[in-house]
Each structure stands twice: as C-alpha cells, then as structure tokens.
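New to this. Help decode both lines:
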Amino acid sequence: MLATQEHQLLNNQSATAILSSEFDPSEVLLPYQRRWIADDSQLKIGEKSRRTGLTWAEAADSSLTASKSTSEGGEDVFYVGSTKDMAREFIDACAMWAKAYNCACDDVIEEVFDDEDKDILTYMINFASGFKVKALS
C-alpha cells in the first residue's frame, strides 16, 4: 500500500517537529501527578505500584524543592528505595527534571556509607541553592 503524501511528510520530520504544534506544557503531568505535587504536606502517603508515574511526579517535586532558596521553601530532599535500581531511577528522574527546569545543579554523585550491618549506597544531586536531593538504597 502506498503511503499518502501526508504520511511521507511526517516520516521526514522529527518527533519534536510533529508534536511542537500540539504540545501543551501544562499537560506533561497527569492530573493525579499534579495533585501529588500540589500537596505540600510534610508527609504524603499514596498507594503505589510499578510504572504508575508517582516516582516521576515525586522527582519533579523534589527537584523543585531542592532548587529553591530557604525563603522560597527550599530544603534537602531524601528518598529511600528498597533497591539500588529504584534509587537510581529516582535520582535520574530528578536530574532530568532539574535540566527541564533549567536549575543549576551538579551531576549525580554516588557514595557508599559504611553502616555497622551493611553498606548504604546513596546517589546525590547538589543544587546551586545549597540544598540536595539524596536517594538511598
């Protein structure tokens, strides 16, 4: 079957060019993700399962929080994952959001702390604000 002229044009464009006319930045996050970020409670509790986007939303919120000054509500953010992969996924999402927000920050730093019983692996991003996001596993 021959492709239509419109399909041929689309095949020759990048995804960005195709989506640029349709992209709405306010729709990057789903409604429940926006509600999660808007909740400024000291402790947030949510039902979680794999690949629902809650970690991605929390990474967006964490990067914003750590990038702010003290007077704007900035502070250190800590994430505890049950595995190394979870901690790495979270810190990578934070780095992606920091870049998207154009926040000044360092690259991801990996450290190991010796505990009495086991080693604790941490990933950290330091922001220009003086605050950091630290993911532990």
